[in-house]
């Protein structure tokens, strides 16, 4: 087992958007790491149920991060880690559905942060940009989106809202 996975052994972990591309692979890695409980929270708006790995440690909650009843269930136990991956994702999706984008990525992130703060989650992990997901390689935003203008620039500001919210929650360990 890779050494860094030891950090997750015996831990209780929530993955929002856990049925998605990154979330389902993360779930597999956390099963290998022998996490105690892995709660996958996903509304299946952009993923299939069969994508969620089956294991006794995995608990699936179907629902939206915008729904307080769903969030209360997900945060009912003591959590060591929250990986926040639920998102209205892909640029064309954002252009076609700007209100959903703002709700899920803005309000949804704020809600997940709020519950994490209230329940004193040990560590909150938010994959906000490409560079966070490719092993520490530095990628400048302008190299990824060289011609950010108009609506794309607005989307970029929306995703930055999550970063600003994170900056105000200094008590939690955030990466
Ligand atoms: N995949 C990449 O290359 C990449 C690059 C940069 C950043 N990211 C970020 O990583 C995160 C996850 O990306 P991914 O590739 O796994 O995306 P994905 O679309 O595969 O997964 C997102 C998941 O969120 C779920 N979801 C959407 N709205 C929801 C809601 N309201 N409540 C609960 N669940 C909801 C979807 O059903 C889906 O399973 C996103 O924030 C994305 O912006 C990904």
CATH superfamily: NAD(P)-binding Rossmann-like Domain
Q: How would a textbook summarize the main sheet? A: 6 strands, parallel
Number of beta-strand segments? 6
- CATH class reads Alpha Beta
- Portion in helices: 25-40%
Shape: globular
Outline the secondary-structure elements.
Elements: E1 12-16, H1 21-32, E2 37-42, E3 58-62, H2 68-74, E4 81-84, H3 91-96, H4 98-118, E5 123-126, H5 141-144, H6 150-167, E6 173-174
Parallel strand pairs: 1-2, 1-4, 2-3, 4-5, 5-6
The structure holds nicotinamide-adenine-dinucleotide.
What does this structure look like?
The protein is an alpha/beta fold and 175 residues long. It has a single domain (3-174), classed as NAD(P)-binding Rossmann-like Domain (Rossmann fold, 3-Layer(aba) Sandwich), CATH 3.40.50. Helices cover 39% and strands 15% of the residues. It has 6 helices and 6 strands; from the N terminus they run βαββαβααβααβ. The protein has helices spanning 21-32, 68-74, 91-96, 98-118, 141-144, 150-167; strands spanning 12-16, 37-42, 58-62, 81-84, 123-126, 173-174. The protein has a 6-stranded parallel sheet with strand order 3-2-1-4-5-6, sandwiched between helices. Strand 1, helix 1 and strand 2 (37-42) form a beta-alpha-beta unit. Helix 4 (98-118) packs parallel to helix 6 (150-167). It is globular, with a radius of gyration of 16 Å. The model is unreliable at 133-158 (pLDDT under 50). Bound molecules: nicotinamide-adenine-dinucleotide (NAD). Nicotinamide-adenine-dinucleotide (NAD) binds at residues 16-17, 19-23, 42-47, 64-66, 85-89, 104, 108, 127, 129-130, 133.
